Structure formats: structure tokens, C-alpha cells
Amino acid sequence: MSEPLRAKSGELTVEEILDAVREGRRVVVEAEMLGGVHEVSLRHDGTTYYCDTPTTLHKHADEAGMRECILKMGYARNE
């Protein structure tokens, strides 16, 4: 298994994040939430996309849902 790609919120584009996830890499994003900085894990198991936050495991059925989540939550920088 490859090393996760680590970044801070807004450091990578949504395409860079999705490219890594498509390759089977886990992307760990440092995000400010809940009054502190926490790690969010973004991954794909071949069927489902996951956004694992400190409080919730979000599941997305397709890449469009994952893209929307990444942009909505501010994990990627605005292009």
C-alpha cells in the first residue's frame, strides 16, 4: 500500500485530490473544524468514495458526489 498523500486544506486542487484517490491512494487533509485542526481521510475502495472526518464517515456513490463534498467542505483550493 502506498503512503497517503498529506496536505492542508486548500493546498491541492480538487483534480489533484481525485487523481490520487483514483490511483488508490488515501488523501489526508488537515482541516480546521470543531475548534481545532483535525485530519480528514479521503479514499475510494473501488465502489464507494469515503470522507472520514473526526465525527462522521461520509459515503459517496460516485465521483461527482465526492467532488461536491471536497469543494463544499473547502478541502481543495478554488481554481
Automatic annotation (TrEMBL):
<dbReference type="Pfam" id="PF26008">
    <property type="entry name" value="DUF8001"/>
</dbReference>
<protein>
    <recommendedName>
        <fullName>DUF8001 domain-containing protein</fullName>
    </recommendedName>
</protein>
<feature type="domain" description="DUF8001">
    <location>
        <begin position="1"/>
        <end position="77"/>
    </location>
</feature>
<dbReference type="InterPro" id="IPR058314">
    <property type="entry name" value="DUF8001"/>
</dbReference>
